[in-house]
Amino acid sequence: MTALAPxxxxxxGRNPTKIHRVYHGIRYCATCxxxxxxxxxxxxxxxxxxxxxDLPDAICRRCERKKPCARCGKxxxxxxxxxxxxxxxxACSPYFRAKEPCEACGRVSGRLxxxxxxxxxxxxxxxxxxxxxxGTCSACRRHxxxxxxxxxxxxxxLCLEQGEIPCPSCDKPMPAGRGSRCEACYWSNTCRARxxxxxxxxxxxxxxEAFNEFGSWLEDKVGPHKAALTTHRHLSFFLQVEIQWKRxxxxxxxxxxxxxxxLRRARLPMQWLHEAxxxxxxxxxxxxxxxxxxxxxxxxxxxxxxxxxxLLIDYxxxxxxxxxxxxxxxxxxxxxxxPAVSLLQAMDAQEYRLPNQTTLDRYLLNAPGxxxxxxxxxxxxxxxxxxxxxxxxxxxxxxxxRRCKLERVIIHMSxxxxxxxKFLWCWVMAGLEYFHWVKVNKRAxxxxxIVSTNDGLRVTVNGQSYFLPHWDRCPSS
Length: 477
Fold this sequence. Notes:
With 477 residues, the chain is α+β, with helices and mostly antiparallel strands.
């Protein structure tokens, strides 16, 4: 079917000189309008108007325009467009326009407009092209039409013509483009308004007053700008406190509920509690809480009711019994559990259910420094499960394994060199141990004298001089 031209009547299809009326998107010429619309009372306002004779519930134009916006439901508004669905406001009208290309950039948009300030440029422009001469004023930091000043700055017209004026709120000088408040007053008012909004979330007057005091303290602590942007993120902490206690709790109660990690996330509320409410943090209690949670993580490494889990839980219970008796600390319990977990993880893929001498020797070969730490777990296995294990390390095999590990490190570093002191220090530590059997720590290397020569590096550490090859000249395999 061939579409009718825009100036044709949709009722009869003729080509008149003028469309008499468009009703719900349908165009009527004068003849069709007189035949289709008859004079009768509007069922809504009771006044005479020409209404479609085939629609008993049709209403007059005045009543049509009094309808809520067909898109957003707004009641009091300026009509932007009459659509087949009813009238819409100015803000919603672009959604009912046909999208057309911008006459400047070609971008398709439903918000094309002509800009009178461009003079003879009468093209229909998209919002981006229409506001291409707008930007952020360097004085008031408002997004406005910019004018270049004599010193080359991009300013809005108010800042260019009036310069600085006194702030109506605090009488301090401010750029004229700021309007009714300077930036400090704006952020201060915004901060207080957001605090008042958050206060409505509390059910108890005690916590409402506490959060209000915290907001004032935060504004003085970090400034009104940052306080306005960050106040709301602390609301959840105070709401949890209200749900749990309905008052300001002690530090011990907070630690038991939120744990040390949760209190670290609430650094500013905890600082306020310390300064304003006298909640003294206890470093010993906090450290013990962290150790307990680390121990829980270690015990939960293996699936529940599996044989490694049962072994580890039994060993954990024995260690905690020593702690309850005052014979060891929580930190020692965690440090004793760590090598036990590593040994059981090495056994996870094996067929036998308990560690044997071969697995223990392999573990100590890869981690010879854990010989003392694993002793407690081995003694526990000997007593609880009648195992006969010997905690031993083969010096030659350990040195050979360490040398192989250093060789892999050196090969990797020579194949992937990096810039900076960190890579140089790592190369010196690995090279001294591999080539000269001299093991030094990072602090000693940082204090050492390292001189680059044509054939390598000359390293002087602890009063001794050593030669190391350069990583570029080291064999890569």
